[in-house]
Amino acid sequence: MKKYVSKFHYLTHDLPGFSHIRQVQMACSAGANWIQYRCLTKPEDELVDEINEIAEICDEWGATLIIANHYDLIDRVDAQGVHIDDIDADLPTIRKVIGQDKTLGVSAANISEVLKLQNTGVVDYFTYGPFATAVNDGADDKPALGFSGYRDLEKLNIGIPVIAVGGIRPGDVENLLQTGVNGIAISSAIIQVANPAEMIKEFYRKLY
What pLDDT is recorded for position 16? Predict the structure, then answer.
């Protein structure tokens, strides 16, 4: 049975003066129902404490919490799954570690990576991008796909939910959904504006 995957993903980032907890509070209160916690700078014990605090916020709002890359912490935190950035990671082993009940997402940047993920048989969804500009650490060298890159997916028999990511703005949402993607993931469009909560609400209105 396919696991539920939201149309609206918010990705937290390490930002000066804008903590992960504050980002999650803001995103959930504005309507985001899928949070991906992305932190590459803290030691393990701090990660666990922060993830569990964020999990309480997500529980209050009914949001799904996914942790990026730290699949080894899955037994110590209240998260519903993990997202892996490395397309070459040992995904079958990661699936065994996290179990069948947890959601497993992976990042893809081109058609060959998409097909590779589908062939593993262990991935529940994948993010595909960047649409315009890369937002993930280490992804700056990946070419922007644009709308044509997503329309190329329609030529394939993809059985895994596709989440568009990377430099997406509200004006892009309608056309992206017409390409057949199942949802979008956002970060930079939110953190670069004066009123992040209102921007999230604008994305929410576009999606739903």
Answer: 78
**Do the beta carbons of residue 139 and residue 176 sit within 8 Å?**
no
Q: How far apart are CA 70 and CA 23, in angstroms?
A: 19
According to DSSP, the residues that pair with 10 across neighbouring strands are 35, 186
Q: Look at the chain and count its residues.
A: 208
Residue stretches of the chain with pLDDT short of 50: 134-139
Residue of 53, 88, 45 whose CA lies nearest to 70: 45
Find out whether 27 and 35 touch, Cβ atoms under 8 Å. yes
| Residues 6+ positions from 99 with CB-CB distance below 8 Å | 74
- pLDDT 10s digits, 115-141: 999 999 999 999 999 998 644 444 456
